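CORE FACILITY INTAKE
Project code: CF-77B
Contact: R.S. (postdoc)
Sample description: multi-component assembly, six entities in total
Requested service: structural model of the whole complex
Turnaround: standard
Below are the sequence entries exactly as provided by the requester. Do not edit them.
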Amino acid sequence: MASAMEPSRKERERLQHRQEILSAALQLFAEKGFHNVSMQEIATAAQFATGTLYNFFPSKEDLFFELLVATADAGLDLILPVLEGTDDERDKLSLFIRSHERFAREQAVALRLYLLESRGWCLPGPKVEAKKKEIDARVTSRLSNVIAAGIRKGLFNDIDPVVAAKCLSAVLESLILVAAEDPQVVDLPANLEKVEAVFFRGLVNSSGDKRDA
Amino acid sequence: MASAMEPSRKERERLQHRQEILSAALQLFAEKGFHNVSMQEIATAAQFATGTLYNFFPSKEDLFFELLVATADAGLDLILPVLEGTDDERDKLSLFIRSHERFAREQAVALRLYLLESRGWCLPGPKVEAKKKEIDARVTSRLSNVIAAGIRKGLFNDIDPVVAAKCLSAVLESLILVAAEDPQVVDLPANLEKVEAVFFRGLVNSSGDKRDA
Amino acid sequence: MASAMEPSRKERERLQHRQEILSAALQLFAEKGFHNVSMQEIATAAQFATGTLYNFFPSKEDLFFELLVATADAGLDLILPVLEGTDDERDKLSLFIRSHERFAREQAVALRLYLLESRGWCLPGPKVEAKKKEIDARVTSRLSNVIAAGIRKGLFNDIDPVVAAKCLSAVLESLILVAAEDPQVVDLPANLEKVEAVFFRGLVNSSGDKRDA
Amino acid sequence: MASAMEPSRKERERLQHRQEILSAALQLFAEKGFHNVSMQEIATAAQFATGTLYNFFPSKEDLFFELLVATADAGLDLILPVLEGTDDERDKLSLFIRSHERFAREQAVALRLYLLESRGWCLPGPKVEAKKKEIDARVTSRLSNVIAAGIRKGLFNDIDPVVAAKCLSAVLESLILVAAEDPQVVDLPANLEKVEAVFFRGLVNSSGDKRDA
DNA sequence: CATGAATGAGACTTCATTCAT
DNA sequence: CATGAATGAAGTCTCATTCAT
């Protein structure tokens, strides 16, 4: 038994160390930005030697990229699923907006990384830039699909779905960002409700006509 | 006479040189980001020697700061005045939204600097960060005041003015950003109109009641 | 019995492993040079872990040294014996020259190591340098002895035997080197014959006088 | 006048500094080899800061390359010209061999660089390797042309001129190398004379027939 | 005020070597 | 003896800043 588990233990330890490095790097990158963090700093924070980082990641840029992918995927897994299903599109959007609260709460640090570094363009390289665009496209695509469906059903007013999606994203990201900077001052849930109110008033078709009906 | 004018000419020349440096730096910073531009590069682009830059700006960060202040002030002078006056608040917001087209057109480069570098936080230091917050506060303050006034007059629905202001800013900045990246693909004026439509539908009080009336 | 043999088997295995490491290292050193090969690389090629190498060799330099000694000895065993015996010195030299063909064929890789690394001086250290000189001295000594004997017998013209030996060595090494770089282009046997022709024309006493006779 | 000379003075100083760096680098490279010399070391030896080296040479490899080209050109200018002219080919070769004495005397350090590093193959890169081959080709070509001419005139025995050229080069380089290591022990002029004797005895057509005659 | 060569701290990265398992 | 993750010194190169002219 023990001998059968042994390779697994080493493997687990290695992953653990990898995680420690990623965690330290995330913290620092999110706090100070890619260019203001040195590999030395990350190594020290992760309680490893400099060279050890390179046993896990080929370069600083790769480390950052790994981080971006991981946080982006985790984040999208939190907010995109609510857009699936066959529910009422109004409910979907409502859930989507409210899901950002949990998003902001659970992944505060990762958010700084994603929203800020991935938005600024003092980026490590083209690889990161491409990933950033892919993520943006993924969100915009899903969101605009939902809005378009709502419009077809006559639930929403006839607005360019892509523009509406981008607007909603921009608003939500902006709010989260502000809240991430002053967590105790800004009341994110209340603000999200207000956003929902504003957005829905603009979007929802208050007249009775349902096109598809 | 001549001796009285001489210092003025020297002064003028000095300012001219200062402007040339700022101009070259703006171009480069906006294109490549703070950390990817060297003082050498700026000096070469401005057709000066490296050391000369330090006769005008104590450090790279100060040069960047100066740039941020200048471009921010110029930009705000373009979009904030339309919020003044005694007009109908609906007109003010409409003008404000549409003014961003000219803003994006006339200050495309400066915008990249302001929106991206000041938004990302691969920033040179706290001084820049403070200025960025000040600028944001200035816009949000004016905008929320206008919205609040509209609400008081019963023109707008009763929404948290600050949240509404931030939402609007976020949306506009996002649009401009996207348009700045693909000028020929994205039709900014059309999108601004759509934003106005969405926003106003959410904001404007379509019922006849005017609280103040 | 078994217990008496056991250490022998372990010993054999140990030597086997040692040989595998040496073999992998030889290949790599000869191909890329001492400074462009890492212990990691050698370990991987030898299918061992990094640390294992240090169970056999105290340092990278020692590993290289061991290699130099081994290949040099093997090489010298191939070309020096033909200089022994009581034959005609002209035959000895002729055999010596021709033996380089087999030398080049059988030990092509080792030759690159010996001729190039030991000749260039991007060398690991003084230990290696000393060994290199010792090897050179060994060849020169034997060769010059043969030539001196030939002169004494009146077979060769009266030339400084040491200089003649060094010249012959230099020529042969040069040829082998060139042939090692372009094996299919350079016809080593033919060139060796030509060298023999040139060298003998210069060396052999064509007049009939035999001093010792 | 002075103002006209000023740019020239700065230029002269810059070249002077460049020379100091090259000189220090030559010394160190020749002594310890490319891989065993650090830019720090060179900078210290040249009494400059590390970064200063990069104001003159884009990389360590480029610095080395510059050195190789300079020393090779200077060296070839010393030994190749004697192969020109319309003299007797025997005289040309004789001069060529003897010119190596001055070569070794005047450019002892550069020789180590050229003969050893360019011969070993722990080389900085393909650029250097290509230059090395070019140099070798240049010498071999000139030398073999002279020998071929001598053969056509019936001055020399009928030997493959390229092989003969390579042999002569190998011998001379070998001698110089040995002499460079132990200047006080090895009597280079005497050895060169002996080489000449050996070589000529092998090469020169002692029979009376002159083919062209 | 202009120049630009010089500076040197610091960044990223490699790799010979060690040691706990 | 085998393993291979960890180490950290050392290397190459960049660049903000200074200063003598």
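Facility notes:
- Residues 2-32 of chain D form the longest helix (31 residues).
- Residues 6, 10, 38-40, 50-51, 53-54, 59-60 of chain D lie near DNA strand F (CB under 10 Å from a C1').
Invoice: internal transfer
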